[in-house]
Amino acid sequence: AQAHYLSTLHGLSVEPLREPPLVTVPKKITQFIDEASRVCTPSNIHICDGSETEYNNLINLMVQQNMAAPLPKYQNCYLTRTDPRDVARVESRTIISTSNKHDVVPNGFNPHKGALPNWMSPEELEKQLGDRFPRCMEGRTMYVIPFSMGPVGSPLSKIGIQCTDSPYVAVSMRIMTRMGLDVLKILNEDTPFVKCLHSVGAPITPGSTRPVWPCNPENTLISHRPESNEILSYGSGYGGNSLLGKKCLALRLGSYMAHKEDWLAEHMLILGITNPQGVKKYVAAAFPSACGKTNLAMMTPNLPGWKIECVGDDIAWMRFNPNTGMLHAINPENGFFGVAPGTSKKTNPNAMASIFQDTIFTNVASTNDGGVYWEGMGEKPEGVVDWHGNDWDGKSNAAHPNSRFCTPARNCPIMDASWEDPEGVPISAILFGGRRPEGVPLVYEAYDWDHGVYIGASMRSEATAAAEHQGKVIMHDPFAMRPFVGYNMGQYFDHWLSFGRKKHVQLPKIFHVNWFRKDSNGSFLWPGFGDNIRVLEWIMKRMEESSPESEIAKKSPIGVIPTESGFNLDNVSVDWNELFRLDKSFWAKESSDIQKYFNDNLGHDLPPQIRNQLNLIQERIQKL
Ligand code: SAT
Ligand code: MN
Prior knowledge:
By secondary structure, the chain is α/β, with parallel strands linked by helices. The chain contains 15 helices and 32 strands.
């Protein structure tokens, strides 16, 4: 029996859908909603239809409750200020729970030295959830958000149902995913879906105060049960902790599913690049959070005749297409949750053209003419109110370094014509990169697939404000997935290696890039942004070449690097030798750090091919 139209669930009134009875909600789903509401005891349930009216109503409610403020300088834009304790992902409180610990934690992992996803036993998680969820939505409305990661109805897409007590999450999910009636309409009793339960962990009880940004930092827990397709997130209302389609579903559960189903769920942007001759290729690139994925994905090239088009800025789901033999990628998201500071007309004009309509800003500063401001946006206006809501002193951060814009993809003027193609786009190159102020050259190319997988596995980057880590330490971040991999990292490396053994496939070439190398005065050696097209130009030329040596390429111990004459330096002046200098002691230390990281984290589960690559590189470095 299917509930034709939800009007009550065990006695609670359910706000009606637009034109009842429009949809038939599968019983599995009403059961999940019923279960969630029975445990969390919200005072009301609202099934989201995804309409504009609903969005406006929710925004108005947030404005009434001081959770959002209109930004009259722009069209349909709002500003939210969070509790200062709830500003980023909380990796230390993010866990994966499986019945078998080894499915998440490599054998030989050293808990005192390692830094990989946290595992929790099902029994312990049950207890932790029992301490948190019962009655947690008291006095609040529970929003039920049916969403699709990927185009609605595409065979590559995945469905989630998120129950949340945060209207901020409901409106943000409408921007970041395909959400509402269109999703409900395609569901039947057999459609698999991910059960997503989220609470800010701040029930409204008689006499309790009503914080503007409810959250519960002391008890935050972001938990995943990949075996039963469940995500349970408690205590944080921010970004990757609460918009459960993004990191939790599309990457953590996504990578777990991808491992089982022979595809890849990766922390990657996807872009299309067209050269002046009209040849077009697609590239995917993995950089850690807040390292410029959005800027690269929307780049305005500084070379005439070149064109970049955007498919996605954060997540790629990829599988080899049996017809073309190529790795096809889709962007499962529907919007951008981009870092605001540093975004300007100069660094990312396409983002600036996207974000001043239909956008929710979080933790940026505001101006007295109803606009926003952040570090690196341009001229400092008068009368700035900082992200805490105080008059800005001009010294501390005006905007929080992890402040964000949340904007629909359709606003971006350079979305690729195929960005919603259910087949995905064919990927010709994969880039790995990070913030490396020292030692790492602008670009190098892997000798082969296994070497490329080693390069992904050995990625490191300076810590950023996207998670709770303090200071600018260089962190290991394999494939930019350390905070997001949903299963044993050794098996994850092996999964990547397995594609190199596939028959009848066209493997993309793999490169490493670093826009962030600095000279001895601490200035960047490379202009970056629109000039990164020069690196992409070289990469595109290398797609046509198979030998490691050519007019434009030569071998080095760490990989294939450009020759100076084979790289377009028209109208830029750079210290080429310094950009590509390979220092023997730096690389010896780098590879021994990586060896240590592998030993402490991957232990016996490190695939032998990766150890072999490490040995080969160490031998080549000796000859430097
Ligand atoms: O806060 S998010 O996890 O959504 C953004 C990021 O860290 O990449
Ligand atoms: Mn990200």
